[in-house]
Amino acid sequence: MKFTPYLLIASVLVSQCVTSQDWKTYPYKPAGSKISFPKDEGWHSAEAIEWWYNSGHLKGVTSGKTYSYMLTYFYYPASGFDGFRILNIEDDASGKFYQESRPVKYTTLSTTHLDIEASVYGRGKESWSNKVDGNGNLIPFEYAVVASSAMGGLNLDYKSLKRPLLPGDDGYLDQGANDYTYYYSQTSNAVTGKLTLNGMTEDVTGNCWIDRQYGNFNPLTSEKYEWFQMQLSNGMDINLWNIFTAQNAIPDNEKYRILAAYVDESTQYTISDFNIERLSYNWMADSTMCYASKWRLTSAKNNLDLTITTKNDNSEVTLPFRFFEGSTSVSGTINGQSVTGVGFAELLHSYEQPKLTINNPVGGVFNPGLPISWQLMNPDAGRPVTYNIEYRVNKSAFKPITEGVKDTFYVWNNSSLSEGDSIWFKITAMSIDGELKGTVVSASPSTVIPDNANSLNIKVFPNPVRDYFYLKPGLPANSSQCKIFDSKGREIRVITGSSISNKFDVSFLQTGIYFLQIDSPERRVVLKFLKR
């Protein structure tokens, strides 16, 4: 029998339903938590922005078709409205993505429990609230959702199967440079009800993920991020994100990197010690936005090695801001055991084509002893690149020198060049899948001059060097100038006249690779050394 991820997850959830659910009561406050239920399921009027998010996977009872969906209500007053609602429904088989965003006014927004009634512009009333029993009492962690759009709608009941997951262990996080958020997830909720799409309504069952955030971290105006939720076949759930700085860096701390995991009924943890490698990228149809579309997640904690892949390429929301929100598949291993799973990716970080400039040589002369160097003008921690280097001499076609360089410099040991040749270089930067690519070509040729270090057999010693080095057998006669360059070909220091000696003080240099260029009327010598 084919055992799909949906069946794997369902089997785990059924087994967990018979375990202790001491948390399924109101009021409920986890030990050490800043979050309490049902109060913090409601609206927090003192916070700048708040949103109620859920995404899930459904299966038609009659048709057997599978769907994914996302429904989010934002409280963020603007332009005479209280906020906005986003509703996405995706037909998994066809990949057809139905998306609608609308401003709302909230006719009900409880501060004591979850009770949202929204007047959606052009659509009418929608609601998401706690269910109640025959006596009007709240049923802990059970909800009813009703929402509709031009293409379809949802009329669903939710029943939480797992205790809430609290990122940061207490539900409070500093996020990005200056912001904060209160945050909890309800990682597994059994779903029953009806789905309407293109005029057809059928009963559905499935599972959804609920996320709640409130504070001043604002996805419209704060730093951009990539966020993932994963529901895995071994019963583990993961809430994961990276936030990017304005310079496209991902600092190695909890403000920018979070992995919160629900392991089992008694075990949760939050770490920032993990790695995400982007494996592929996907341009939107208008070529304006490019999102990552495949990732490898690794972490020493529980030996995670998971591959996350978006199911469809076109799941982009365009209003009130552009971002990708789509279902994902997950596969890999945890503690050496194979797992599969489903999830969602919310991607606000868009990637650019690499932009390059050549630092050395730039016209003038090219000495093969010095490195060819360049600069990536728009670095991005989520888009590492490797470099291919080509050259052409005089009027010949470009020929390859090397491929897959990870540094932004390369020392080319080539004996085929002749003194006086005119040489051009071409540097190409590429993402791991080749989807993102940028090329720069020398603006003007450089004239090749010889590197005579080998013929004179001059050596730097000691090498590596700490504070001082000497030359053996010594400086060439009539040496008129010495220059020190870094590994990118940048000039660090010039030594002329009476300052030239056979003892070189390099104590001021940082650790790294450097080059000493010695000029005399007869020749130029370039020597490489390592500074410790």
3D structure, described in words:
- By secondary structure, the protein is mainly β.
- It is 3% helix and 54% strand.
- The chain is built from two helices and 37 strands.
- The strands form six sheets. A ten-stranded antiparallel barrel has the order 1-2-3-4-5-6-7-8-10-11.
Give the overall silhouette. elongated
Radius of gyration, CA atoms, in whole angstroms:
30 Å
Main sheet overview: 10 strands, antiparallel, barrel
Q: Report the portion of residues in β strands.
A: over 45%
Proportion in helices:
under 10%
Rounded mean pLDDT score: 92
Instruction: Write out the strand line-up for the largest beta sheet, numbering strands in chain order.
Output: 1-2-3-4-5-6-7-8-10-11
Q: Any idea of the CATH class of the largest domain?
A: Mainly Beta
Q: How far do the termini sit from each other?
A: 62 Å
Low-confidence stretches: 1-9, 14-19
Oligomer: single chain
**How many structural domains in the coordinates?**
3
Q: State the CATH superfamily name of the largest domain.
A: AttH-like domain
| CATH fold field value of the largest domain | AttH-like fold
| Number of DSSP helical runs | 2
Number of strands: 37
- Would you tell me the structural class of the helices and strands? mainly beta
Q: What's the architecture of the largest domain in CATH terms?
A: Beta Barrel
